[in-house]
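Human: Here is a favour to ask of a fellow structure person. Comparing notes only helps if you start from a blank page. I am asking you to supply a protein in sequence and structure-token form. Write it directly below this note and I will take it from there.

Assistant:
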Amino acid sequence: MPELTHVQGTLIAVDMAVASSDIKETIIDKESNSTSPSTREDEHAFSLTAAVLGSLLGCIVAASNMYLGLKVGWSFGASLFGAVLSFAILKPLTQILGYGYFGPSQNCQAQTSASTTGGLSVGFITAIPALYRLGLMSETVDPDIVALTLWSISAAFYGLFFGVPLHKYFVVKQDLPFPTPRATAYTILALHESSNGQKHARIQAKLIALAFVMSITMTVASHWIYFLDKIHLLYWIGRAAGSLALQKADTLWGWQLQPNLAFFGAGIIIPTSTAVSFFIGSIIAFGVAGSPMVASGYLVGPYGFGKAGNGSAQSWFIWSGISLMLFGTLAELFLQYRSLYRAFTDAVISIRNVALEAIKGKVPMKQQQSQEDECGTRFQDLVRKTRINEADFMPVLLNQQIPTWWWVTGLVLSIIATCCVLGFYFGIPVHHSLLAVFLAFFLSVIALQAYSTVDINPVSTMGKCVQLVFSQMSYPTVFALQRANLICAGVTAAAAAQSVDMVGDLKTAHIIGASPRAQFHAQIVGSFFAVAISVPLFVLYTRAYPCIIHESDICEFALAPALGWQNVTKILTTNAAIPHGSLACAAVLGAASFIIIGLREALDCYGYSTWWMPNLSAVGIGFITPSPSISTAMLLGHILAGVWQHFRPKHAEYRTSIAAGWIGGVGIAGIVKAALQLGGVAGQTVKFNCPIDEAGFVKCI
């Protein structure tokens, strides 16, 4: 999830959790604390208030994920946002009003519903825009609203229900790290343990709110004030120095400064290797390699598709970007093939046992013993050293578990509904729909293994492998084949993403000792909100910015994920030719991915530092994203975080709260700007900093 799912905002929660030096002691104390809130009768009760509030907070994250996903292909989780703000809102209210109870379990329900609501955007920034850009749907989105809504329901609830049996293996039977859900749980427990935790939460909530307001104000103001949107530093330096090259680097290639607080916030959160690798990808494609290739006449220009000859730098490097992301992910998964094999076979056996138990009584089947890999990453080793056996404290009673008939019935109904929706609205045969359902389960197992160990959710990248499967199906026309390819791969990836989010939330609940049944209710509430917010957001953005669904050389959004899916569909279903040089470069980089990742794993295994090695997926996104200003802004944000850490280490933990507010604010401001665009409100009234064209006119580009 380009794979927006590669960078989960749950990294915020990791940083948040490790900021508290007392978290581990907090959890251990909770085990022996007889006055723990878990002794209350209402501790495990489902709180509709918490679920609805969490869902509303998740709507903010959904708006941000839609905006940022279309912009750059990244999304951020809602765990911290939902956990901290729901605590800051509901904890004082319950104390002041003296009504209800808000403990760790209810806090967990709020962050669960927030996470569920904010996580359905994957389909609307990948497969769905690609469908429209290939002319496989209506001319506008409006006639397809019902179909898109039902498609969203299929993805959301199918992933919700088959996540339940998977959690029994990945959460209950396995002792996997689950870095982000674990950190989220530690954060929630720390908030509820003492007055210091509540004071800390209030500070964080204030910082998030201030950053949120600041972000909205700046982003909305940029509709009228141009320099709040782009700063043409290279152009004006080049103009003063008489350098045409610097001016073209700015105006033609897009090397500008973009003071978008969401990108600065993202830079604060992401690891150094990701920020630097993303920037390196942009430099190569739209700088040191792309510019000479255009100057020599080998490429036609910087951007655009369908150009003569070898095309533009954007269309030439997109295949190298896709290759890096796809083969980089496959290489990561290949290194875990033993764990993946055990995970898949044990998960299948677990589901079989549950089903037979429901029908005939308990039917045990021996499962393979999970063994630790001989060599793990530094983070995994750290987790193993500090791991606490969650099963040893705060046990969950049987009446708090999710009844088998709930998820079995829901799963059967959701499969039937999926087949009906895909068949009636998209003309996909039942057996192809069932194949998509099976592949979603298979993809979930793979994604969960990766997410639970290295905190990477590769469903969007793996969705391209599903596209390869469906490209081999027989359809009467290329139109029908392409439509089935994108629809089935899209619903598979979206369902798998929802399933991974659900299992992660259940891991958080398991650590806290919260009721899985209450979490399941919260996820259902969040799923309804996810469907209710995702389709209207997509409709709004496509009305305001038609370039999202129609080919255009100039667009507000980079559309990196959609372009990846669109071009993969073309090459798999038609005889579309890729320039030989581009194909050769993609092949070499794909092979290099296995070598580089294998080398990194070997160095890591023997204790050597690997911080200097590139994040290949981030380099690939840099190749695909046709706006170097985005990677520049994220790198500057990361540098800002490093400076903050150096000079104010005691307050460095608050940087993630500010980043969360910045990211959330830009999402809401994006909705306001789209509404202004639809309303025909004149923009760019303050033209300071706009370049001057050859005729001497000010031209804000």
